[in-house]
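Q: For a teaching handout, I want to show students what a protein-ligand complex looks like in token form. Below are the inputs, and the small molecule is hypoxanthine. Please produce the holo structure.
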Amino acid sequence: MKNFITHLPKVELHLHIEGSLEPELMFELAKRNKVDIPFDTPEEVRKAYEFDDLQSFLDIYYKGANVLIHEQDFFDLTWAYMLRCQEDNVVHSEIFFDPQTHTERGIAFDTVINGISKALDKANKELNISSQLIICFLRHLDEAAAFETLQQALPYKDKIIAVGLDSSEQGHPPEKFARVFAKAIEEGFLTVAHAGEEGPAQNIWDALDMLKTSRIDHGVRCVEDPHLVETLAEQQIPLTVCPLSNIKLKVFKDMQQHNIVSLLRSGVCVTVNSDDPAYFGGYMNDNFYALADTHELTKQEIAQFSINAINASFIAPVAKEDLISAVRSYTASH
Ligand code: HPA
Ligand code: ZN
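A: Here is the structure, written as tokens, with hypoxanthine included.
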């Protein structure tokens, strides 16, 4: 099964590029940019990655991003992730970035997006890995700040497919950003949002109704509302689920308790993703291995996660069909 997972073509739909900052690169950039970090070794950093909930993670995650200053830093960060995609046989990735984490520190929006985009172009040419970019608004900041960020993104419409919503879900429901998302849609962006990670099932309904999202990031708390689960299955509204993240942030007690497999069997379009792999202990393959280790999954079910991700992606319809064929023939030959 491990071998089957390793070589299965995969699509990632929930990855925060700032969350792929490995401690080694954090140290290298801290040195290069003369930024102080409160650790002596990368091992020490890893040991500090024990979280009680989403907020305790976010506090450390935003501090880690302080080492990212120049365009080259954003390039190096993104290139390192694309090399990990190659290793894990991820053939397409839809990547979140948080402009406000950087613009709040005086880093220009252009610096961030140019560094990221150059690495994505290189990966497309040299590694044959395709990608899309999604800008996320930080929901703990106010509506005006989100509008300002949307404004900064307008000149980069050709590089950004969608807008999203991340950071602290508790106390910052979807409705806070309904007007910003309406404007984003008017400007031609697709929309996604984190909902039902720590927040209630109602946030999923509200993200769909008020933000018109094409899919829901996390969404695992949908099970608290059986009518919602039925609707998600009937309308094939995708959930970008992140198993290792959910265990690290204590959304579930352990992987056995995780509901992704039962959602799959209920017909919900669930996908497997790594979220913030440098912080949560693994990239795409590790997330799949962890599920296969704790749940009795067939190869067809594992392949279905990949097919779901292809269907849930923003890839052009013809290319989707080619990818689905590739997954089906891979599965048939194993
Ligand atoms: N949830 C909310 N905000 C985030 C996450 C997440 O999983 N990762 C990075 N920012
Ligand atoms: Zn996330």
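A: Two things your students might notice: The pocket of zinc ion (ligand 2) is lined by residues 14, 16, 166, 194, 217, 275 (CB under 6 Å). The mean pLDDT is 97.
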